[in-house]
Design brief:
Rossmann fold; 2 domains; alpha/beta; 13 helices; Methane Monooxygenase Hydroxylase, Chain G, domain 1; 9 strands
Length: 430
């Protein structure tokens, strides 16, 4: 069959692929290039290499895991399976083409490795199916061992994540703090992509409500203590869900992505729009841009009355601080904001939080909210310092901008700045 000589790029920014390839080679990252940690091994020198190079790494680790399991070393096998699972996750995510055999294979290996670790965890883990609009979304349910009744968290992953990723299943931060936790692949994520459950403007909150319905049917769940944790794009849907469903008693979100989506899809890495169009199954860029413009939480903000925690990087290129503050300022319920000093999109394993995985602090906050320690009228803003402070326990600031955040009062222009004419900002030039 002759090759089409007039192939049109699906997205205008696809002509920046050479820049993304260069950044992949030099930084080992595909997004958030302000961060230092490599996501990819040095062998990956272009974006197209990601799936096959990572598959070799994951298969190597999986082979060791199976040998450890055969030798009777279950916990060692589980740790290895977890490592392999996360590498397979990134390998499959780099393919944004429906029905691609390599994506299907790599996604299947991710599920297989996660299933391999489940029997060795220190708490019960279940792979669950949640009925949703004629199909079902897949979830992973982590249960507090021995708990007759306990509060529960619905965890909503980001657009570069799946239900298997980010929260360590072998040291689960929510379970360790007495909270059952259900992770889901909502529309456009993980297994839902494989099943062609694409993201629309409003179906993710409905899927999340179906997940809450599922939790409410579990005898070990205290249905009066349902909470939500949203990470990255999951923070957007957590906000919408909290406004729509009174069963949600508190939300704790991180890597905030509440505001307009222009920074995500048109300013940050080209990968974001490539993945976004795959998640929605929209192949016309103008149509997708119109969709993204409507993807805002603004209509939901007045309905968020439960305690809400926001965590945002000071220099997040995906969710600029000004956009986060715009949403935060309009939330009416008890609220708290952690601004990660010098931080970008990912707050985990940073010195600001003592180089911890960070999610345990979200769990603590949710437990405090359920215990009534986040009273009406709460408005606490903390700049979490890189060093020298007490993490999120640092004393709040007067404001997030200079000079208030430095502990100084702002009184406007000085006499020297105003000059003899006494001009003020906005005055017409004489």
């Amino acid at each position: 069959m002759p090759r089409d000589k007039n192939v049109k790029l699906e997205r205008r920014r696809d002509n920046q692929q050479w820049i993304l390839d260069y950044l992949v080679k030099t930084t080992g990252r595909v997004v958030s290039f302000g961060q230092d940690a490599r996501q990819l091994p040095p062998e990956v020198r272009s974006y197209e290499m990601i799936p096959r190079v990572l598959e070799k790494h994951a298969r190597h680790i999986e082979t060791i895991a199976r040998a450890a399991q055969q030798a009777g070393h279950g916990m060692t096998a589980a740790e290895l399976y977890w490592n392999a699972c996360d590498i397979y996750r990134e390998a499959q995510h780099a393919i944004y083409e429906d029905g691609n055999p390599e994506k299907i294979y790599l996604h299947g290996k991710m599920l297989e490795c996660f299933a391999g670790l489940m029997p060795f965890a220190d708490h019960p883990i279940e792979l669950v199916e949640i009925p949703f609009e004629g199909n079902s979304i897949q979830g992973v349910y982590h249960r507090v061992p021995g708990a007759a009744k306990a509060a529960a968290v619905l965890h909503l992953p980001g657009m570069d994540q799946t239900k298997e990723s980010r929260l360590d299943p072998l040291h689960h931060p929510f379970v360790m703090r007495g909270l059952h936790c259900l992770h889901i692949d909502g529309p456009g994520q993980g297994t839902s992509n494989i099943r062609r459950i694409w993201l629309t403007e409003d179906n993710y909150p409905r899927a999340a409500q179906a997940a809450l319905d599922w939790l409410c049917k579990r005898s070990e769940v205290d249905t009066q203590k349902l909470t939500v944790s949203g990470y990255s794009f999951g923070s957007h849907w957590a906000m919408a869900l909290a406004a729509m469903d009174p069963r949600v008693k508190a939300i704790a979100t991180a890597a905030a992505t509440y505001g307009p989506k222009t920074p995500l899809f048109d300013v940050a890495s080209p990968r974001s729009k490539q993945i976004g169009m795959y998640m929605t199954n929209i192949h016309d860029e103008d149509e997708f841009d119109a969709f993204a413009a409507r993807l805002v939480v603004d209509p939901h903000i007045p309905g968020v009355r439960c305690p809400a925690l926001f965590c945002a990087g000071e220099y997040d290129d995906i969710a600029p601080l000004r956009d986060v503050m715009d949403i935060y300022d309009r939330v009416r319920g008890p609220k708290e904001l952690w601004i990660v000093e010098n931080g970008f999109h990912n707050p985990t394993n940073l010195p600001n939080f003592g180089n911890t995985p960070f999610f345990g602090m979200l769990a603590d906050w949710l437990n405090d909210a359920l215990a009534g320690r986040k009273p009406a009228g709460l408005d606490r803003q903390v700049v979490v310092p890189v060093r020298g402070g007490a993490g999120p326990y640092t004393e709040p600031v007067k404001g997030i901008r200079l000079p208030e955040r430095a502990g100084q009062d702002f009184s406007g222009l000085t006499e020297a700045q105003r000059g003899p004419a006494g001009m003020r900002p906005g005055d017409p030039v004489p």
